[in-house]
Amino acid sequence: MGKEIPAEKSLNLIRERLCDPTFVFRPLSASSDSNYSKLKFIVSTSITEGCNNSILLLGPRGSGKAAVLDLVVGDLLEEYPDSVSLIRLNGLLHSDDNCAFKEIARQLCMEHHLLFSKMASFDENSQFIIAMLRECGLAHKTIIFLLDEFDMFAQGKQRLLYSLLDAMQSVTSQAVVVGISSRLDADQLLEKRVRSRFSHRKFLFLPPSREEIDSLLEHLLFLPADSSFPNGYVSQFNEKIKNLTSDARFKDILRTFFNANSTVNSLLKFIFRAVSLMNLESGLLSLENFKAALSSIQRQPKLEAIKDCSILELYLLVCMRRLEVKEQSSYNFISVMKEYKTIHDSFQTSDYYAQNVCLRAFEHLREREVICYAENRGQSQTGEYRLMTLMISASELHQGMRSHACCPAILLKLLDH
Amino acid sequence: MAPSGTVTDHPPSSTTDSFNSDVTAENDIRPFFVLHKASSGSSLHGKSIGTLKSKRRIESPTPKIAKKSEVESVEEEDGHFFSTLRLKVFETVWSKIEKAIEDVLRDSNSKIFSGIHDWIRESFESIISSGALKLSEAVRSYPVLTQASSKQLFTALVLTRNLEMVDDLLTFEELDLYLKSQGCHVAKLSSMDFSAKSGVGGCLRGLLRQFVMPTVDVADVTILASWYRENKNHENPVVVIVDDTERCCGPVLSDLILILSEWAVKVPIFFIMGVSTAHDAPRKILSVNALQRLCASKFTLSSPAERMDAVLKAVFLKPCSGFTVSYKVALFMKSYFLCQDGTLTSFVRTLKIACLQHFSLEPLSIMLEHFCQDHVNQLSGEDTGLLTEATMKHSFDLPSVTRNKITRSTFEMLPQFLSDLQRMPNPWSIVVLCIYEVGKFDKLRLLDIFCEILDPEAHYLKYFSPSEIVNCQSHNSGRNNVIRRVLRKLRDLSPSQLSSMLKSWENLTAEFSEINDKVMELHPFMRSVEAAGQRQGLPNSPKKHTSRSHSKLEKEVKAMTDKVAAVIEFMLREYMKPVETIPFHEILCFKNVDKLQSALLGDPRGKIQSDLLESHNILHCMCCSQRGTTLLPSMHDTSILYTLAQEHADVINLHDWYQSFKTILISRNSKAKQKSKSSSKSKKRKDICEEPEVPAEALIQARFCRAVMELQIAGLIRMPSKRRPDFVQRVTFGS
Amino acid sequence: MAREESSKVTRRSTRSSSSASVTVENPEPNESHSPTIDDLTFGEESITLDALLSNFPGRRSQILDFIRLIGPLDCPILPIMVYGSASTGKSSVVLQTLRHLNRPFVYSSSRTCYNPRILFESILNQLLLHRKCSSNGYSSAKRCDKPSDFVNLLREALSNVIGTLDSASGKGKMVYLVIDNVDLIKYWDKGSMILQFLFSLYTVLKMPQLGIMLISGLPPDVYYSNMGYTDPLLLYFPEYSEDDLRLIFLRNQANKKLYSAFLDVVLRPFCRVTRRVEELSTTFSSLFRKYCEPLDDLGVSPNEEMKRRLYSHLKPLIAPCLNEIFRVSSHPHDGDTRGERRQKVNYSSETREELEVLDFHMSSSAKYLLIAAFLASRNPATLDASMFDSTGGMDNRKRKRKVSEKSMEKKEIAEQEAVMKGPGSFPLERLLAIFQCIASVGDSSFGEEGEEEEEDPTGYDRESNNLMSDILLQVSSLCDANFLVKSGSCPLEGSIRYRSMVSEDLALKVARSLSFPLAKYLYRR
């Protein structure tokens, strides 16, 4: 692969950076009052002093909670290689207590090179875990439980949380439970017996500030001078980036982007898109790339759905809309058909099709979820008689039909009456 | 014992299995048999009672009754010998009939089957020709991207033009076997596999079970694909038969179709859907996307009426077994076929019951054995030797015999009578077939012709009076009358049709000279007609008044048709002796309609109720057999309760009911006489206050509860609802 | 145990990857050909970019965008979601692009894999180069139905595959996981859970070597409802425009000129109804056959007047086709004589569809029952008393007039709610009551035209009480034929209710076959 051109190489490099959260969040965690340093302090103290602890990391999705935690844990593993052992659980996978315990047991076995039996029962697993906790406590080895999607553990009987925290009450054990959740009220979900055992130490993750973003940008986009690039290219590339970031239009793009979504991950996605659009001949990022990326990020699925509709489907939508305007609260296919017929009778439109064709169009609209059944019960009725509702607002319908490729004028007229 | 015994177990078994076959899930509603009208219509009420009696003798399963029937059957025949013999004869006769029917049905289907197979082959070739797949791409998980229309499933809609499925279950079995014999891989799914509960997994599992192996861990289509690629499987098409599409759960079937269509190229699957209603039934069931994937073509089975005609022809008109039925029986069977479930199965069942009863009731029916055998005049000494005095006497008491003034003196001519009984059907059936030939032009059903022709008083002959001939052309009154329709149709046959008809007549009458001559006489007229036709270029309808030559042609045709009509009349007059006018016809003709009907139409609901009302007829206890309207405590609790329930309205107050029940039970002394079943509330109070039988109370309550439960299980009352906890509701008014 | 398991896998795959080239060349179906690492890519040679672009008219921008997102060899990639409505070429574009780039990938469609277990196992089977066959009893490599197990197994499998990929040349270190028809997962039980899992699989797995691509028929906003939803990169496939469709249909045609002439005629009207390729293609294929009928050789390039002639030949067929969604072609082998007539009827719109004749057999009691059910679910129950009486319907003409004017006043309200409610439901008793009334009417009429007047009564009053018996059998068979649906429960407390699903014209058809005056009894709206 020696023949690969520097442009591809740089693209590759940047994309790897973007896909590697630890790399991304390293600079953000530099400052002393960052979540990173606080968290690290707490965990390391609880390791050194051999006490138990429990922490919650809260913040919107993609604000880098897990990444920061990983950084911390990684560093700790380097510092205290033999007195830390790690258990990772994810609420998506292990919200069911039984398989959570199984998973913990499995990881413990992996950690300590024991043979793990899939057949082990729930009780066996829990006893095994308690025993291991005690053992590790005696060996002054801290077990760090990382519970991602913490709130999902809080649903159900919360046996996992209870037994973990309860085991931590005993002096012998030595463990840290770190919960990660995007629900700010995650600790309110806990039962009383669990909450009483939980030390309410919370870290809030806020969206990055302007300068953080700027530093992040150059951290991500600047090519390292030392690497095997032809250095003319590197300087050129970095130069381009520099006056790109200083460009006002670029700032506008960023602002408009951050109006919609403010987390770091979304920013990463945005940059990823822009970078993937990079022109490989010149090998440089341009403003157009970011423009295109922005447009491709900002999507309006409903409008697209309407643009996809055929004329007949548009007719049906308009009929429903008209029924709604007529304060006909609920309607089904049959009444829509009647409206369709009245329209046809009054305006002699060219598109008047048989009922079964309309039914097919109706089904198409349903599977695009432009419309849907009003209530789920009433399965006994056939589809024609079940009540329907529009899933799109009137304004969306207007806008979509205006931008539709070949929407007949009569329809727009019918829509406005 | 034997005959009645056999009768007892035959009809119920046949009926039940027919039920199971087509109403598995629905049996639960049987207890709901409500006949409001049946009670009101008085005439029909009397009849139903009559049928009930006879039915009890024939098909009540308790051995006691059977013995009784034997007791009365003993004096009309002697001993087991004849009954067993008759049974034997029945077996032979029925097997003959059954075989005939099976043959008819089979070759009615064979054409369609071969058609379906050809269709499968062609489509399979077309798929193969589009390019063979490598193993690696045939089993890989993503679709083949080369073909454009790679997602179409070839589908055959087999229209069984009958609402009921019973007849066609067998048909699809045979189709299954046929296609297997042709080398296809066939799996047969029924609506049971398409349940919403088990979802698409259920039917896939069913497929894999039949194709691959009995037990699969997870029902996955890839298994099918890789199976299809193993040891030469892929040289033959895969066929999936769904015999009752209407009953399948639509979404599941749609899912199956969508999944299989994803794999359509890798595993060329052919759907065969049995559609019992209209050909657009799939559109009603399937989702539009699934519908999109079907590339459907249609095959139509012969309609039940057509099959029926074929069966009639084979059983009664072709020489099969001498057994035949009387006019009324035929009418009944026809109406049963048209009004009840129009299935051939039930028709055959009827026929079987009729045949069986004939043998069980008619001692002389043994002689039918000789009709089964082909050698004709083999009826001599040792056969008549079979006839004991009793049977001989019986044979000469036969109404037909007495009607024709045949005395014992003419005993030795019995064989001769029998032999011409035996040869009698031939010209008769020929005539019927000839008329059928004409009727075909008017889409007449052989069934109708058959029924009318059997009419003993031969009403049809009067249509040959000239007046009739006139007015039957003029106005179309009584269009249901077959012969009249035939005659009228004859009038507007085109020459070509006439000639074709003549040909078919020739073939039919070939081995029967008398009629054949008559038919031959028609030929010159035919020729002249054709000549006239030649003269002005073959118009196919004689109804145009254009040219003179034309009118000439008309005259010819007119003359021709008159001749034909004359021939028909001749045939009818000479050879159309209805069976029932012939002496000794009872030997081979079954006449007893009521028995047949009662055996066939079990009216379980009505029977339960009537039996509850007069339980003593069944229990045969001395005590309450001669009771009048009074209810005796010795009667069965359930029947007491039900009788009491009669006087209540639609809902019954449990308390009142219980009280009246109690009064009947505990007052076995002085005023048993004036305790009528109309016991008013006041009297009840009195009873309670003056004779409190405390110890019996619990027992009475227990009996009451049990009786109520039984009534509920019999489906006669409905348990109290939440709103009115102390009222039970009567499901029906008495029948 | 897992460890030695994995080692076995590596051994097998390395061994076969050494012999990869031969095994793919000669696929002898009988010898169990063990899949190789090459089976993760397309076996055959990859296609050029131009071929790819020309294969998919109107998809140029999407393809280029997709290629850019995938990026050059072993670039890591964030999850991608390709969405767009049905038959817009999502799956084929994705697959063909991967073929063009010749990247190893794993494809599972949640259409074929209709529950989580099958989905997971099919993914693992492909990664572990395992193939179900008779020798292994058609079992999959690993039994896995929980997401948690899946993640662990997936990690192992991936690490192995990537290890072997390094040895294999020129395929990079990336493996792509394509999951098709993601929208169907919504309808599984606990489907939203599985969806969350798939959407956040990338972050859970923490393996940048796995590029995840989800193909969905539904726009992303449908999934917002699931919490735990992290937005993947979006790639949108719009419906084809009319010109795109023209190019698509012209793509592999023998005689392009002729076909484009054909398209000039049909494409525009049909596009107004639907723009789905698969729907159009089925219609066009049959129509084009009709179009070519007058021609003797199909190689001809049509001039103007020939086009005109062909058009005039085709014109009458277009409107029926527009109004037909399901075509049943009757087969030459069909025993039915009326086949070709029916064929024409199929082209005609269903409203005029053989009103004259009921083309399947029903016993007359079943017919009466059907009509009774139809009436029971169309008429309000309160009107039964005035409609029917025990003396039968002969003298209810004046009654009917009363009914009709009653109906006149509250016409539109009834209509409104009837349209809303659809056919009403009714208990069995009501059905039977109505049935007996109309059956008695029908009988008397049937009788007087049926039998001769001096005919002995055995003829029809037996029929009339025949009609009464075995009714429940008929009810059940009507249920089977979907003419009745029943909201079933235990019949003993009899809360079971029925509803008639019969379309009005079918009911009229049946009534006509009985010569029964249905309209007289129908509570008209």
Automatic annotation (TrEMBL), chain A:
InterPro entries, A to Z: ATPase_AAA_core, ORC4, ORC4_C, P-loop_NTPase
GO MF annotation list:
ATP binding; DNA binding
User: A single Pfam family, by name?
Assistant: ORC4_C
Decide whether keyword Ion transport is in the record: no
**Among the entry's GO cellular component annotations, what is one?**
nucleus
Q: What does the record list as GO biological process?
A: DNA replication
**Which key words are in the record?**
ATP-binding, DNA replication, DNA-binding, Nucleotide-binding, Nucleus
Role this protein plays: Component of the origin recognition complex (ORC) that binds origins of replication. DNA-binding is ATP-dependent. The specific DNA sequences that define origins of replication have not been identified yet. ORC is required to assemble the pre-replication complex necessary to initiate DNA replication.
> Which family does the similarity line name?
Belongs to the ORC4 family.
Name of the featured protein: Origin of replication complex subunit 4
UniProtKB/TrEMBL annotation, chain B:
GO cellular component assignments: nucleus
The record places domain Origin recognition complex subunit 3 winged helix C-terminal at 605-733
Single biological process term from Gene Ontology: DNA replication
Cite the residue spans of the region called Disordered.
Answer: 1-23, 532-555
Q: Which Pfam families match?
A: ORC3_N, WHD_ORC
Would the keyword Ribosomal protein turn up in this protein's UniProt record?
A: no
Task: Write down the InterPro entries for this protein, in alphabetical order.
Answer: ORC3, ORC3_N, ORC_WH_C
UniProt keyword list:
DNA replication, DNA-binding, Nucleus
Q: Which domain of life is it from?
A: Eukaryota
Molecular function in Gene Ontology:
DNA binding
For this protein, the parts annotated as crossing the membrane are none
User: In its keyword annotation, does this UniProt entry include DNA-binding?
Assistant: yes
Cell compartment(s), UniProt = Nucleus
Which intervals hold domain Origin recognition complex subunit 3 N-terminal? 53-367
Per the record, the similarity remark reads: Belongs to the ORC3 family.
PANTHER family noted in UniProt? ORIGIN RECOGNITION COMPLEX SUBUNIT 3
* Entry protein name: Origin of replication complex subunit 3
Organism source for this protein? Answer: Cardamine amara subsp. amara
Automatic annotation (TrEMBL), chain C:
* Keywords assigned by UniProt, alphabetized: ATP-binding, DNA replication, Nucleotide-binding, Nucleus
Spell out the GO cellular component terms annotated for this protein, sorted alphabetically and separated by semicolons. Answer: nucleus
Family recorded in the similarity comment: Belongs to the ORC5 family.
Q: Where is the composition biased (Low complexity)?
A: 15-25
Q: Where is this region: Disordered?
A: 1-38
Q: Where is the ORC5 lid domain?
A: 259-308
One Pfam annotation reads AAA_16
What Gene3D superfamilies does UniProt report for this protein, alphabetically? Answer: P-loop containing nucleotide triphosphate hydrolases
Signal peptide annotation: none
For this protein, the record's InterPro entries field holds: AAA_16 (IPR041664), ORC5 (IPR020796), ORC5_C (IPR047088), ORC5_lid (IPR048866), P-loop_NTPase (IPR027417)
Q: What is this protein called?
A: Origin of replication complex subunit 5
**Domain spans labelled Orc1-like AAA ATPase:** 56-203
Q: Which residues form the Origin recognition complex subunit 5 C-terminal domain?
A: 362-522
Cellular compartments annotated: Nucleus
Q: Name one GO biological process term.
A: DNA replication
